[in-house]
């Protein structure tokens, strides 16, 4: 195969290469105009460029939903999986290819409903990966169905008189899981904060869970509107171990010093009240990582086939 037609091979063959945005851009995104997913994609591309991540050493794993189209829009490796199963796939990738950088992209329905069990255990397993949960509080791909994070009384196609139950709070859930090591929240309409949070999450040594508040102009256009228009409703959690974005201080004047090591305080801050809090709620890199407790030997194909033959020979007649 000529290296002219394969950007990954071209990148491998040139160790001095500096990756540019065009090295990461995949297909043209087909999300609705104004969808917050566009903003997240831009921030992720900015992260890939700033960290100079090798496209052939980077994997984006997703489930099903609007945001799960993410891997198609990047020129890294990708796996567009099945509903709720992004984290088990990512866990397998990470266990068998620890040399790869793994990102996971999920929606709120994907992560907190059908994938909720996997979410809890991936948090507890604390494998090295960055998990992004784009929360638009609705099932958008299946046309306006109530998700676990839909605000109470918000009408949808499945609950036309309004969502019956109070919404699940992903921060409280994540902070309640044994062995959780990184929990953060950001908003796609504040690009500087979004990028800074993704960067801190990527640099975390363990499972970094980031809830990204994401506007869906198609089905939930109002739920974040007040916070978008009134920055005073937002409170920035700041700390040297968290997210610091000095250029936002004039616009977002509510700032709270919060040490991400303080789990009890993090849980208090995650409790719903009038404020939307953005920043790193919790971070502890000393938590045990499942992959460090297991060594998955990497064998050549020939070794694998030989081992397989040994096993099959046991049943030979
Ligand atoms: Fe984005 Fe909503 Fe459109 Fe899905 S339905 S692409 S979340 S705006």
Inertia-based shape: globular
| Low-confidence blocks of residues | 1-11
Report the end-to-end length measured between terminal Cα atoms: 43 Å
Q: Please state how the strands of the largest beta sheet are arranged side by side.
A: 2-1-3-4-6-5-9-7-8
Q: Beta-strand level of the residues, as a percent range?
A: 15-25%
The number of helices is: 11
The radius of gyration is 21 Å
In this entry the ligands are: iron/sulfur cluster
Q: Provide the succession of SSEs.
A: HHEEHEHHEHEHEHEEHEHH
Number of strands: 9
Q: Estimate the helix proportion, in percent.
A: 25-40%
What about the largest sheet? 9 strands, mixed
| Structural class by helix and strand composition | alpha/beta
Residue-averaged pLDDT, rounded? 93
């Amino acid at each position: 195969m000529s290296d002219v037609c394969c950007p990954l091979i071209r990148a491998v063959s040139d160790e001095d290469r500096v990756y540019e945005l065009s090295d990461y851009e995949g297909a043209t995104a087909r999300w609705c105009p104004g969808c917050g997913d566009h903003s997240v994609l831009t921030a992720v591309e900015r992260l890939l460029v700033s960290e100079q991540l090798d496209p052939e050493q980077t994997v984006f794993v997703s489930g099903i939903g609007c945001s799960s189209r993410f891997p198609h829009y990047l020129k890294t490796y990708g796996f567009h999986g099945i509903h709720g199963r992004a984290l088990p796939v990512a866990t397998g990738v990470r266990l068998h290819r620890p040399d790869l950088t793994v990102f996971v992209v999920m929606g709120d329905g994907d992560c907190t409903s059908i994938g909720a069990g996997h979410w809890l255990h991936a948090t507890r397993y604390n494998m090295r990966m960055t998990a992004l949960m784009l929360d638009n509080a609705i099932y958008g791909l299946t046309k306006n169905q109530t998700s676990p994070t839909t605000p109470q009384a918000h009408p949808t196609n499945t609950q036309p008189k309004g969502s019956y139950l109070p919404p699940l709070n992903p921060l409280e859930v994540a902070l309640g899981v044994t062995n959780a090591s990184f929990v953060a929240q950001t908003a796609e309409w504040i690009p500087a904060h979004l990028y800074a949070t993704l960067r801190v999450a990527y640099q975390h040594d363990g499972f970094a869970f980031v809830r990204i508040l994401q506007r869906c102009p198609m089905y939930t256009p109002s739920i974040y509107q007040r916070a978008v228009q009134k920055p005073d409703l937002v409170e920035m959690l700041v700390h040297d171990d968290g997210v610091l974005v000095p250029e936002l201080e004039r616009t977002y004047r509510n700032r709270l010093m919060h040490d991400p090591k303080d789990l009890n305080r993090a849980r208090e801050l995650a409790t719903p009240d009038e404020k939307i809090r953005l920043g790193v709620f919790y971070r502890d890199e000393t938590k045990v990582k499942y992959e460090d407790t297991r060594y998955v030997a990497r064998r050549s194909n020939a070794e694998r086939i030989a081992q397989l033959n040994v096993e099959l020979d046991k049943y030979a007649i």
